[in-house]
Specification:
methyltransferase; 8-stranded parallel β-barrel; binds sodium ion; 13% strand; single chain; binds 3-methyl-2-oxobutanoic acid; 12 helices; alpha/beta; elongated; methyltransferase activity
Amino acid sequence: RPKVTLATLRKLYKRGEPITVMTAHDFPTGTLVDKAGIDMTLVGDSLAMVALGYTSTSEITLDEMLHHCRAVARGTRSSFLVADMPFGTYETSPEQAIANAVRIIKEGKAEAVKLEGGKEMAPTITRLTQVGVPVLGHIGLTPQRQASLGGYKVQGKTVAKAKAMIEDALALQQAGCYAIVLEAVPEPVARHITNILSIPTIGIGAGAGCSGQVLVQQDMLGLYGRVPRFCKTYRNLADEIVGALKEYSQDVKSGAFPAEEHCYPMPEAEHLKFMR
Ligand code: KIV
Ligand code: NA
């Protein structure tokens, strides 16, 4: 499969083909996403929760993200690779954002960065895109701000809030975002934003009106406990894995594993000498 670039994403958007995005947090999960032919791989800071066991995404450090991003990059051949900027690594100033985005590109081996926020982030995004860092925007439910939002709640449910979100989307487009993630947004609002923009929207809990979709891999594979309403659980791999681990445990206890086919024989003559 040829390398997916910003031009490829643009082409998909132009011809109305939904863009597929999936998270990955290490070498195997990155390899699987790439093998499945997903258009864009996101090293989302959701990995703080689903891979590191933190209670929120705000706790992850830049160094931790870089460590995971490099691992995903090693397994990524054709998918377009974007990584989240962790909470606290881009809000202070455009200079701070550039310095840390450059680390994500150079050390993390990502091709683009994602950051959360609306029009208040537009000057920073403008500077990032000016110096050649592609930026994926993220509005609606922004998990890094969950404390100030009062939890993980649907955003833009009133006309006033929906209008503010439209303003944010337009500001992010104007600032140069190549696409915008819409998280937990009522379907009509996401559809409207998608219609008025000339860049793709990537929905998560935002309905089918978006230009593409993203899910967290652990969620859709049933590897991380309770999932939000918007997630479709495609497999229950946790059950599969626990089942396999239990079988292994029983086999070891009963002596059924390892069997002869799992053992290395010795050449017959050597074996006989060895036994003497
Ligand atoms: O961190 C993440 O995985 C994300 C996606 C859910 C959009 O930001
Ligand atoms: Na994220």
